[in-house]
Queue: 2 jobs
Job 1
Amino acid sequence: MNLIDYPKWPSLARESILNVPMDLRSIRLSIDGKVIDYGAEIDSVVITGMGGSGVVGDLLSDLCWFWDCRVPIIVSKNMRLPRRLSRPLVIAISYSGNTAETIMSANEALSRGYPVVGITTGGKLSTVLSGKGVPVVLIPKASAPRYGLPALLYPALIILERFGIASVTNELESGIAGIENALRHVDDAVNLAKQLVGSIPVVWVTESRRGVGIRFKNDLNENAKYYSVVSVVPEGAHNDIAAVTTKQVGLRHVAIMGPNDYEGLYEEVLIDVISSFGAKPIIVKLEGKTPLETEMYGVTYLGITTLALAELLGVEPVSTEPIDRLKNLLSERRVFPV
């Protein structure tokens, strides 16, 4: 099976952090009459990005359930930033550098006087931000944005540490160990993929692993061209679970469970209830000794599963024609003023 860039993930992670500036907190800019002081106190971190870039925010949000993050992480997948922000740090992530929504959000952040750091392979985002003196972390390229995940995530981790949001350095190598562990479980991933053929996967995941579930759904969409549903526990136990009584044909339930999820017992009870209605889920147990190791094991293992599913279905995994067509039409119709 062709694993595309997954075997390169450890090197992508290590290489990507080398371009994160050491002096981020000493930067002071004047843009459109506003002084932006990167050394000033911040009260939140906004991660803005779309698709394979935006999921970085979801994973960081997961990690802050386990780490002692000093301020909240706000995930923004839109062309506008949330209105009610006070003193945020904005991390603008666009693999291509040409994501209109992300460029618009970054420009808005600067116009509101917020410090911004870009993470990209280049493109318009790099040009726009660098031209204003805004720090940009340039990362190595992969076959597609989703295959470059570690190159997007690891610089964001370092940025959090540079701004005193969370202590991450001691976990970086454990995250890479999680990737390497998942690469040793390709046969298990193939077996999981075989169980998903001909179904619509319903992915059950705890709130503290939401990012892993979203990433799995996204990879099912983009790699295997497969529809999927994510139900987050405990909220899903107050609505989605009611649908198991109808025994809809074609659904395949998958429950993702981490080793230290505080909602773990809750999910176990939920699985028992789902099973009692004849919809016993496949259990995917994430492995890892640290939060980052567990997250990276999960996104790697489940990503490989979607590549295996694509192969079983005879689907080409890299291309995403509908997404490309949508972007082209949005550009032609000038939906985005970028």
Note: The longest strand covers residues 88-94.
Job 2
Amino acid sequence: MPDSSSTLFTPFSLGKLSLPNRIVIAPMCQYSADGDGNATDWHLIHLGSLALSGAGMLIIEATAVSPEGRITHDCLGLWSDANAAALGQVLDSVRHHSSMPLAIQLAHAGRKASSAVPWAGGQLLSVEDGGWPCVAPSAVAYSDAEPAPTALDAAGLVRIRDAFVAAARRAARIGIDCVELHGAHGYLLHEFLSPLSNIRDDAYGGSLENRMRFPLEVFDAVRAAFPADRPVGMRISATDWVEGGWDLEQSVSFAQALKARGCDFIHVSTGGLSPLQKFAVAPGFQVPFAERIRAATGMPTIAVGLVTEAEQAEEIVAKGQADLVGVARVMMYDPHWPWHAAARLGAKVNAPRQYWRSAPRGAGDLFTGAKIGMR
């Protein structure tokens, strides 16, 4: 194993929550709940596997705060006590074998709700085909081929804000260590931020201050409801990749407003609001957005976007482009990616003792605290 002092494998703290390294497993929708938002055996297998990976923190997939806020019929939910009981049972089993901090991404899909699962095409389901009416900041459709959602009235805003609060309280009760609010990828909170989807003429639309108002109100309410010693952050899309839409400078202003309210971290992605988006995909293509927001705010920042190689992740944190690196699809492809990254960078990583014998030749000290003896 090469001699190295890896920044990627140094500890980091989000508020009072200590992470053993800078690798964060970003949320990955599984579309495998039971139809009522309840976690299933799939979640036990999926989350259990990821929790043995040696990453610094695992963020559970986008979890709907209300039935109408699901992306699909099969999305995970936390709108009921039954949801909390099912997920809590899964997490109790996971924690029995892993000490990895567990976060959850609370979400409302807005006008991108009522979709078919990806392997059934992923498109909007009509009410006649089993879908449900969508709500949004304004009656502006996602695309010309879709009907317009219903614009939320004042009572609707209160209802959704309160649903986020109730879900955060349930998350606290089942021992979730951290909450991430989903303000990215064209879902409801992002829809309020972007002038492409928010054309309201009240206090929640128009100016940047007004468009930020509802996402900030949701953040404030969740922060007040979730235990003060556990972090709350937000994932954002730093740009719509559409002219006249949400952009990096507005994202900086939003991040500064979040920091002033006690936000513990920001998770920086891009896109998802409009089918008109245009961008070139390349390794690390979203990292500069995280770098700019981190430089402008000093807030702990998670970078994502085709980060697939150990050396690439190491460079991001070593150069100060971000404090943490989010990995998602690469973790589904290689659930032991953090082990392999540690081996390549000459670092140590946590692993279950049942797997200590698996360290490759030449990397015998890869796993922290490993002791092997046989007769």
Note: Residues 154-173 form the longest helix (20 residues).
